[in-house]
């Protein structure tokens, strides 16, 4: 999904890698991806790479980089090392050596060492080690990109904004299709959908670490912000619907929609997902129901799912239903056969996005005993 999104934003040399997507382009594209990507968590700028066998090689590779061309020693740094198949014993020690190399290089070039701030650094230096290569990146995002600025109220077990946006894209949702989340919680799916409908760039209301780079040119960045603002539209009311049985969830989604500037676009109802009728004859239902591991009581959920499944069969003919859950047994509990299952991770938790195509006489999941 991210590779497709990057292609839409004008990236070149797009290569999906483990846990990310590599791409190429001018620095202005880096600004654009930070402002416009709904799916990425952060954008790292690759500045150097080298081969290594021991910690000293990593130190030397880091020391060879002209850090003074990227930022100043007045800026506070943090080094974050991640590794895959790395033969070195301690990543903490590698982190320390890279920090030393950056400071030593600044001392040599500018007569002053940057200080370290692990909580709110100006510059995050990300180092990735595989079995033989070390690669150095500067984080151009700062706060992760899922922090758009609209979430003031979290509710129970919210999913991340970029995960919700990726799921909407996986579900092929477009703003001219009716969308309904019957267990909306703080409203992540519908707020993200409403922002897409209004063509609001997800990062328009926030700042980024690239603004602290010496190479930062405010003119194209400001021109980009103006272009993105001019692209915004009002959107069509009546197409996005959300509900939850909890009054607290409705207060939370209401507050979030107000901050996002999308209250007009989302119709809210309070009620039980097993009783509320479909808001239209056809549409896309996307939801992230309660799950025993994180919330809710698994006994009451056992009764909930078959009832919710029956309700879908009865009242949601001609709808496509996408359910995001960590519960691999959910289709069996709903007594519905999925037409697609996409593995996804919610943080460290392995999840599935199950798709069910509701048609009249929707195929009931066959029981093992054949009845
Ligand atoms: C995992 S949370 C959804 C989180 C949401 N996706 C978000 O990002 O904030 C599940 C939600 O289902 C709601 N819920 C649980 N049982 C329900 C029911 N029977 N009818 C309607 N809502 C229900 C809970 O109140 C909770 O807000």
UniProtKB/TrEMBL annotation:
Residue ranges of every copy of the THUMP domain listed in the record: 29-140
Any Pfam family hit: UPF0020
E.C. number: 2.1.1.173
SMART domains, alphabetized: THUMP (SM00981)
Top-tier EC class: transferase
GO molecular function annotations of the record: 23S rRNA (guanine(2445)-N(2))-methyltransferase activity
Record's keyword terms, sorted: Methyltransferase, RNA-binding, Transferase
Coiled-coil ranges per UniProt: none
Protein name in the entry: Ribosomal RNA large subunit methyltransferase L
Organism from which the protein derives: Nitrospira defluvii
Higher taxonomy: Bacteria, Pseudomonadati, Nitrospirota, Nitrospiria, Nitrospirales
Gene: rlmL
């Amino acid at each position: 999904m991210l590779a497709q999104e990057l292609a839409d934003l004008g990236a070149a040399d797009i290569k999906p890698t483990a846990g990310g997507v590599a791409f190429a382009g001018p620095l202005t594209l880096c600004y654009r991806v930070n402002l416009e990507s709904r799916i990425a968590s952060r954008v790292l700028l690759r500045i150097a790479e080298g081969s290594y066998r021991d910690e000293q090689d990593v130190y030397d590779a880091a020391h060879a980089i002209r850090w003074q061309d990227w930022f100043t020693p007045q800026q506070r740094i943090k080094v974050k090392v991640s590794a895959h198949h790395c033969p070195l014993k301690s990543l903490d020690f590698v982190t320390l050596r890279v920090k030393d190399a950056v400071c030593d290089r600044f001392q040599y070039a500018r007569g002053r060492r940057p200080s370290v701030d692990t909580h709110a650094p100006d510059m995050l230096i990300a180092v990735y080690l595989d079995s033989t290569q070390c690669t150095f990146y500067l984080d151009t995002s700062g706060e992760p990109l899922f922090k758009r600025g609209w979430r003031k109220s979290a509710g129970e077990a919210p999913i991340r904004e970029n995960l919700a946006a990726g799921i909407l894209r996986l579900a092929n949702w477009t703003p001219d299709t009716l969308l309904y989340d019957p267990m909306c919680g703080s409203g992540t799916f519908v707020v993200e959908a409403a922002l897409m409908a209004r063509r609001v760039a997800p990062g328009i209301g926030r700042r980024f670490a690239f603004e602290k780079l010496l190479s930062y040119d405010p003119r194209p960045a400001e021109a980009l912000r103006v272009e993105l603002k001019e692209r915004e539209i009002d959107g069509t009311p009546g197409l996005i619907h959300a509900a939850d049985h909890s009054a607290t969830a409705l207060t939370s989604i209401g507050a979030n929609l107000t901050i996002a500037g999308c209250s007009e676009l989302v119709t809210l109802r309070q009620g039980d997902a097993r009783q509320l009728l479909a808001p239209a004859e056809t549409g896309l239902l996307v939801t992230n129901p309660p799950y025993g591991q994180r919330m809710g009581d698994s006994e009451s959920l056992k009764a909930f799912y078959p009832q919710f499944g029956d309700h879908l069969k009865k009242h949601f003919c001609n709808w496509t239903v996408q359910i995001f859950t960590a519960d691999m047994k959910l289709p069996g509990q709903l007594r519905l056969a999925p037409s697609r299952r996409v593995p996804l991770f919610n943080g460290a938790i392995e999840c599935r996005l199950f798709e069910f195509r509701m048609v009249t006489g929707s195929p009931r999941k066959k029981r093992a005993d054949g009845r």
